[in-house]
Amino acid sequence: RTSASRGYEATSLRDIARAAGMQAGSLYYHYASKEELFAAVHGAALDAIGTAVDRAIAREAGPWRRLEAAAGAHLAALLGSRGTASIVSPDFPVASALIRKRLLAQRDAYEARFRTLVDALPIPAGEDRALLRLMLLGALNWTPRWFRPGRLPAKEIGRRFVRALRRGARPSLGGLQR
Question: Is-contact 68 158, C-beta < 8 A?
Fold first, then answer.
């Protein structure tokens, strides 16, 4: 069985080094613990997703189209690389409070993009923009649990999530609908 199939808890740094074709000492030279390695991989995964989102929104004009592009790129990057979804899962497998703090800081820095995008939306004053952002990110980040390739590409699913939110943001109806 591979290290990935055994899960985080049952996999050691030695297992990871063996799977990567390197000496365990080389891995220990760079990372003092499995949690340190996880934080580095988590940061790299979020950087890659962030780059995809930044590229996608740079090509769009208008706040709703930019948010659609961001959601589509986020989902395509999240689902496009084997293992990325498990790395950026909101359920961190680490126990160290220091590492958890680092992971949360990485996530918050990534999500700042979505805060900026949602803040630019023309929705009624008084609507809870933070809740809208968290709802969207929650939907996007839950998708790996149910997504199966075939019906719609990941990018299109992300765009449709935003379109559904937009349809619900009607000022005459008091803002976002359930």
Answer: yes
The amino acid that residue 43 corresponds to is G
Instruction: Calculate the CA 139 to chain-centre distance.
Output: 10
Cα-flanking dihedrals φ and ψ of residue 98, to 5°? -65, -45
**To which residue do tokens 């995008």 refer?**
117
Q: What is this structure's pTM?
A: 0.81
Question: What residues are paired with 20 via a beta bridge?
Answer: none
Q: Centre a 10 Å sphere on the Cβ of residue 34 and count the other Cβ atoms it contains.
A: 20
Cβ-contact 158, 72 below 8 angstroms: yes
| Residue 175 DSSP class | B
pLDDT tens by residue, 37-67: 888 888 999 999 999 999 999 999 999 999 9
The position carrying tokens 């989902």 is: 75
Do the Cβ atoms of 67 and 117 come closer than 8 Å?
A: yes
